[in-house]
Amino acid sequence: MIEEYWKLERRAFANTPDPAFVYRSPSFDEGFARLLYDATELRGGLSLITGEIGCGKTMLAQALADRLAGSACDVVQVHYPKLTPAQLLATVARGIGIETLLRGKLAMVEAVGARLHALHASGRKPVLVVDEAQLATPSVLEEIRLLTNHEDRQDKHIHVVLLGQPELRDRVRKRPQIDQRVSLRFHVDPLEAEDVAGYVNHRLAMAGHAGVPIFTEGAVIMLAERSGGVPRRVNTLATQALFVGAMRALSSIDEELMADVADDQE
Ligand SMILES: Nc1ncnc2c1ncn2[C@@H]1O[C@H](COP(=O)(O)OP(=O)(O)OP(=O)(O)O)[C@@H](O)[C@H]1O
Ligand SMILES: [Mg+2]
Question: Between the N and C ends of the chain, which has fewer C-beta atoms within 10 Å?
């Protein structure tokens, strides 16, 4: 209903990490470029991406997977690492194309090692992306560390990207054997206030909006302020405003409506 009212082809502010909607703020762009370089060229071992809740870590991971699709870098994604080390290993094994899972940890470790070696020899560059890595147990972090040991004199055979909430940084810091393997650290910050307008306009344009802006300048300033620039909060507030605006048959969303919607959310 709100899409029809505002003449949008699809939801503009869905809280899903659809890479088609990625807004490349200067800070996102920098993070993305550095992550891409670390995972594909440098392959230094382990990229560590942290950020507050809702700031775009999963979106960054999806954008990376999207960019690497069809390249020599095969991405294996783990979205929820509350696994046992053996389950993690099995996920990696399946992700790199081992079809029959062997029984016994040692056999699995050897099979993964052999497969990674063969992939490397044929020019493939697997990338393991672990989201919500702050949930991984110490033994899973250790298993991940061991994966980065698959290497030859020149190259790592698998590159790992860990993404997680800020406490992940401290957890990694407490484990020097992992900490020393970190080749990139990047923290995803909330959007700068001046980037919120670009974010809103980009998402609206991707949803098919054209013509007169829906949100007034004042509304966008209010949205930036009340969301703290956190994309997930921007999405929620903007969706609510679109809804209330449509209910009231308004032709645009102004500062006052935005403030009302934000008050309701608190
Ligand atoms: N750069 C961006 N461009 C467009 N949309 C974004 C961007 N970053 C985040 N979003 C939107 O905000 C939502 C929340 O972002 P995301 O899920 O990536 O946050 P997160 O940092 O992974 O949060 P959590 O810590 O809860 O896992 C996404 O579903 C997406 O819709
Ligand atoms: Mg996430």
Answer: C
Dihedral sign of CA atoms 67, 72, 77, 81 in order:
negative
Q: Which ligand is nearest to the CA of 235?
A: 1
All domains of the chain, ordered by start, with CATH? 2-22+191-265 (1.10.8), 26-188 (3.40.50.300)
Structure-token match 């993070």, residue found: 31
51 lines ligand 1 (CB under 6 A): yes
Say yes or no: CB of residue 54 within 6 Å of ligand 1: yes
- Is the pTM higher than 0.85? The answer reads yes
Q: State pLDDT tens for residues 195-213.
A: 999 999 999 999 999 989 9
Point out the residues of the chain with pLDDT beneath 70: none
Ligand with an atom nearest the CA of residue 17: 1
Residue 164's nearest CA partner among 35, 19, 39, 48 is 48
Amino acid 186: pLDDT:
97
C-alpha 11/C-alpha 204 separation (Å) is 9
Largest interatomic CA distance in the chain: 66
